[in-house]
Design a protein that fits this description.
43% helix, Undecaprenyl pyrophosphate synthetase, alpha/beta
Length: 228
């Protein structure tokens, strides 16, 4: 029986380069990228992945042109509202947003609260969406929370784990990055200490179920070691 990662992380990269290669506006790349997010959620459920964490918008992405950032925020709000949210809830998936929520608009924060509230008791799987997310920022925030609760001498890995934005979840077994780049880009830095990595040359909008199967097959062939 083929082993499947219980927790899969994906760095969804290449929307803008895909659009440029096709002679399309940048926003079309992001729109198509959102469509593929819907696809990947379905494919992962069918293959037995229990937790899916998608890197949608980084702390560094705020430096992009304002019009592009605004469009991405509207796309996210759309993904968490209306029919999209109803389908997620129908599939019994719990939605969580990880990242610096205070930097998001009040309207988007409200949509996030509604999506998380509606799906909080769902049991078939978890969808984490990393928005205004940075691994270093997450670690800093976790340490601050630890210091508020415990003396410095009592802070250890277990306590830091309990104060991460992903608290209560297992570390990712596999992280896939699309778009051809081979780096982590500040994604799940603490959690990925022993995570297997897979890099795809495909831009995110063109990443298919067959590409996912190839990544999972590659993962199956690996013998995971944890410093042993």
């Amino acid at each position: 029986m083929r082993k499947v990662p219980s927790h899969l992380g994906i760095i969804v990269d290449g929307n803008r380069r895909w659009a440029k290669a096709k002679g399309l506006p940048t926003i079309e790349g992001h729109r198509r990228g959102l469509e593929n997010v819907k696809n990947i959620g379905k494919w992962c459920r069918q293959k037995g992945v229990k937790i899916l964490t998608l890197f949608a918008f980084s702390t560094e992405n705020w430096k992009r042109p304002k019009a592009e950032v605004n469009y991405l925020m509207r796309l996210l709000k759309q993904a968490l509202s209306g029919k999209n949210l109803q389908e997620i809830n129908k599939d019994n998936i719990q939605v969580k947003i990880i990242g610096q929520r205070e930097k998001l608009s009040p309207q988007l924060q409200k949509a996030i609260e509604k999506a998380e509230g509606l799906t909080q008791h769902n049991k078939s799987g978890v969808l984490n969406i990393a928005v205004s997310y940075g691994g270093r920022a997450e670690i800093v925030e976790a340490i601050k929370k630890c210091l508020q609760k415990s003396p410095l001498s009592k802070i250890n890995e277990r306590l830091i784990n309990q104060n991460l934005w992903t608290a209560g979840e297992p570390d990712p077994d596999l992280i896939i990055r699309t778009g051809g780049e081979q780096r982590m880009s500040n994604f799940l830095l603490w959690q990925a200490a022993y995570t297997e990595l897979y890099f795809s040359k495909k831009y995110w909008p063109e990443f298919t179920e067959e590409d996912l199967d190839e990544a999972l097959a590659n993962y199956t062939q690996r013998q995971r070691r944890f410093g042993e």
